[in-house]
């Protein structure tokens, strides 16, 4: 799990976009992000591929979140 956190920190520092969903709070995002990470990264043993990241992003999009440029 600590590897996933490290990957998330690195990726978030490089992002020129963020996720938004009208009428939600940061806490709502954290709930959906945690759910999607558990779905996408389950069983990766710390090895996260682009396919896993796409799965996680697809999960967030499926829950109504949209990528928005910073």
Number of helices: 3
Biggest β-sheet, characterized? 2 strands, antiparallel
Q: What is the overall pLDDT average?
A: 87
Number of strands: 2
Give the proportion of residues in helices. 55-70%
Structural class: mainly alpha
Characterise the protein shown here:
With 70 residues, this protein is mainly alpha-helical. It has a domain of 44 residues. Helices cover 60% and strands 11% of the residues. It has a two-stranded antiparallel ribbon. The mean pLDDT is 87.
Write the layout of secondary structure elements.
Layout: H1 2-14, E1 17-20, H2 26-41, H3 50-62, E2 66-69
Antiparallel strand pairs: 1-2
Helix pairs in contact: 2-3
Outline of the structure:
60% of the residues lie in helices and 11% in strands. By secondary structure, it is mainly α. It has a domain at 27-70.
Features:
mainly alpha; two-stranded antiparallel ribbon; 3 helices; 11% strand; 70 residues; single chain
